[in-house]
Write a structure and sequence with these properties.
Layout lengths: L5 H6 L6 H4 L4 E5 L2 E4 L4 E4 L2 H4 L8 H12 L12 H15 L7 E4 L4 H16 L4 E4 L8 H6 L3 H4 L9 E4 L11 H9 L11 E4 L2 E2 L5 E2 L2 H13 L3 E5 L23 E4 L12 E4 L19 H15 L3 H23 L4 E5 L2 E5 L3 H13 L2 E2 L1 E3 L5 E4 L7 H19 L1
Parallel strand pairs: 3-15, 5-6, 5-7, 7-10, 10-11
Antiparallel strand pairs: 1-2, 2-3, 4-12, 8-9, 11-12, 13-14, 14-17, 16-17
The site of 4'-deoxy-4'-aminopyridoxal-5'-phosphate has 15 residues, from helix 6.
InterPro entries: Aminotrans_3, Aminotrans_3_PPA_site, Dat, Ectoine_EctB, PyrdxlP-dep_Trfase, PyrdxlP-dep_Trfase_major, PyrdxlP-dep_Trfase_small
GO biological process, one term: ectoine biosynthetic process
GO molecular function: diaminobutyrate-2-oxoglutarate transaminase activity; diaminobutyrate-pyruvate transaminase activity; pyridoxal phosphate binding
């Protein structure tokens, strides 16, 4: 049947979002490039919002998937034991968990990040017998009701009259640009019954707030919050859905911070190939869901196990990939430094390869992204007012392509600001 681009306006819900900014009809992709139906090429600095950390159609993952399907490998297995799952778990244990001294168990949740967050919040409540979850301003955890209740970002919370209860949101580090000691504030509020903050089942946050404007917590803040969680009998949940899988420059966003979360949520790039897959890592003493207590038809996508194993073995079996990330981070930082000189009052945001620039207004950020898109770069904004131009290039982007994309962005800034 023909590809009719008017069908989107005619038949797709008004809830569609990214496609409004990027109005091409995309048909193919490879590495860090997207190709539209007219054959135009775009450099992809959105990368499925960090779901494509290893680029589009990685040749090894693609071949493994083709072989699996050609050999009648199982396509859907509920949570049955399958060979592909065993291989993924073994690779994850060998190359990710053991080298980091993590004794966590892996629980496959429904396929999206929000599913992993729901599971984490439920489990923390079950384990502690408490209801309250402490989360933070501008955090984003997903759009299902539990995850949404922990989400600070007002834009996503919407106005649908949704009942959101059981979460206290407190100021994240650097709240509104201030130097208020928010870890101290958290500690004081938890110790003071008059604050009304119920003893929490968990304290949950992203170390780099992906949707909330790339606010990056310091190692010291993360350590202090982890300590406060422990002192108050709360589980520490780190939501690594967006910052995980290398985005922060290491596999986990917290691994150089000297903390060990009780629960880690992961999705987006864990499949390696953009396939739906999410999981949570749980310390064994908290692995308290009984069989069937937190079910899901799509817990563990069998095709995703195939590609996820390749991603772990190809990129994380030794340190070479992580070393390359340092060089890419330097390239991004030098591009951003040049950009910040062109925009009065601009502030650099983020950490690792999750970087951006706060240009001060959502209108300016949108104009920059629009201009970049017209010149062949797909790039998005983030932040409470969409004021941060956000770079999420695949981690595998060749240095030359990375520089090319940054040059398009620089030109877009120059054209838009002056
Ligand atoms: N947590 C974080 C940190 C995220 O960035 C996202 C997605 N942007 C989610 C949870 C929700 O993931 P999903 O959209 O797959 O439900």
């Amino acid at each position: 049947s023909p590809s009719d681009p008017t069908v989107f306006q005619r038949r797709e819900s008004e809830a569609r979002s990214y496609c409004r900014g990027f109005d091409a009809v995309f048909s193919q992709a490879a590495g860090s490039e997207l190709i539209d139906a007219d054959g135009n090429r775009y450099i992809d600095f959105l990368a499925g919002c960090s779901s494509l950390n290893y680029g589009h159609n990685d040749p090894d993952m693609k071949q493994a998937l083709i072989d699996h399907i050609a050999g009648d490998g199982i396509a859907h297995g509920l949570d049955l034991h399958t060979e592909v799952k065993a291989r993924f778990l073994t690779a994850f244990e060998t190359h990710i968990l053991k080298p980091r001294n993590m004794d966590h168990r892996v629980m496959f949740t429904g396929p999206t990040g929000a599913n992993a967050v729901e599971a984490a919040m439920k489990l923390a409540r079950k384990v502690t017998g408490r209801t309250n979850i402490v989360a933070f301003t501008n955090g984003f955890h997903g759009v299902t009701q539990g995850a949404l209740s922990a989400t600070g970002n007002g834009y996503h919370r919407g106005g649908a009259g949704i009942v959101l209860a059981g979460v206290t949101r407190l100021p994240f580090e650097g709240y509104m640009g201030s130097d208020i000691d928010t870890a101290l504030m958290l500690e004081k509020m938890l110790g003071d019954p008059s604050s009304g903050v119920e003893p929490p089942a968990a304290i949950m946050f992203e170390t780099i707030q992906g949707e909330g404007g790339l606010n990056a917590a310091s190692a010291e803040w993360v350590r202090r919050v982890a300590r406060i969680a422990k002192d108050h009998g709360a589980l520490l949940i780190i939501d690594d859905v967006q910052a995980g899988c290398g985005r922060a420059g290491s596999f986990f966003s917290f691994e150089d911070f000297g903390v060990m979360p009780d629960i880690v949520t992961m999705a987006k790039s864990i499949s390696g190939f953009g396939l739906p897959m999410a999981l949570m890592l749980v310390r064994p003493e908290h692995d308290k869901f009984g069989p069937a207590e937190h079910n899901g038809t799509f817990r563990g996508n069998t095709h995703a196990f195939v590609t996820a194993r390749i991603a772990i073995e190809k990129f994380w079996a030794d340190d070479s990939f992580q070393e390359q990330l340092k060089q890419k981070e330097r390239i991004i930082l030098s591009g951003l430094a040049a950009i910040s000189e062109m925009v009065p009052g601009a502030r650099l945001k983020g950490r690792g390869l999750m970087r951006g620039v706060d240009v001060g207004s959502g209108d300016l950020a949108a104009a920059i992204c629009r201009r970049a898109y017209d010149n062949g770069l797909v790039i998005e904004t983030s932040g409470p007012n969409d004021e941060v131009v956000k770079i999420l290039a695949p981690l595998t982007t060749p240095d030359t392509v990375l520089r090319k994309g940054l040059n398009i962005l620089m030109d877009a800034v120059r054209d838009t600001v002056t």
